[in-house]
Design a protein that fits this description.
The protein is mainly alpha-helical. It is about 60% helix and about 0% strand. It folds into 3 domains: about 50 residues; about 40 residues, Arc Repressor Mutant, subunit A (Orthogonal Bundle); about 55 residues. Keywords: Cytoplasm.
Length: about 210
């Protein structure tokens, strides 16, 4: 016969581990409706793929390759993925040309200050083919790109007061190069901005 000390909460008698398991089991919420995405492609491959695509396209545009990679991660069969991506392209929900132009506007001269070369590399990593990327990049105004380079140099100069001009030049040209600006343009812009600076770096600018 069980004693009071052998009883758990509520007068339950027996192994404590079994009691905890029983209590947790009774505390589980009722069965929830199945989540087709969580269940994976076996639930309904096309429905799952469509849900994934719509979710991925909420908030920002994505390249076709980005979407294809996401479907592959979710184990959507290749034929289903291709069929739905083609359908999404037909209705304009997937458009690598529009994606490239949007990416350039968000990362280019008017925002992050990236030049054509850096933008081309980013678009390639996103899976945009070179021809599509080139068409979008050709819309960039060279004057806007140069203006962006000058703005970047002017901002950077604020933190370079007192530096030797050779050091300042090297750092500024390197900064522009990392953002994709060609060496000739980068060097010309840096020379001009150093010469125009109202509070120049220490020393005379050397042509060598």
């Amino acid at each position: 016969m069980s004693t009071t000390s052998e009883r758990g909460p509520g007068g339950w008698a027996g192994d404590v581990g079994d009691g905890v398991a029983a209590w947790l089991g009774s505390a589980q919420p009722p069965d929830q409706p199945p989540d087709p995405v969580a269940q994976g492609p076996d639930a309904d491959p096309e429905s799952v793929a469509r849900t994934i695509l719509l979710d991925q396209l909420t908030g920002r545009a994505r390249s076709r390759r980005e979407l294809a990679d996401k479907l592959a991660q979710k184990h959507v069969p290749d034929d289903v993925a291709t069929r739905l991506l083609d359908r999404f392209e037909e209705v304009g929900l997937v458009d690598d040309g529009a994606f490239a132009r949007t990416w350039i506007s968000q990362r280019g001269a008017g925002s992050r200050g990236l030049a054509r070369r850096a933008l081309a590399q980013e678009l390639r990593r996103k899976g945009v083919d070179d021809e599509t990327a080139r068409e979008a990049l050709d819309e960039i105004d060279p004057d806007d790109e140069e203006a962006a380079a000058r703005a970047l140099v002017r901002r950077k100069l604020r933190s370079m007061r007192g530096l030797d001009p050779q050091v300042a030049t090297r750092r500024l040209v390197g900064m522009l190069a990392r953002k994709g600006y060609a060496g000739g343009l980068a060097y010309a812009v840096v020379r001009d901005e150093l010469a125009l600076d109202d509070d120049p770096v220490v020393g005379d600018f050397d042509d060598s």
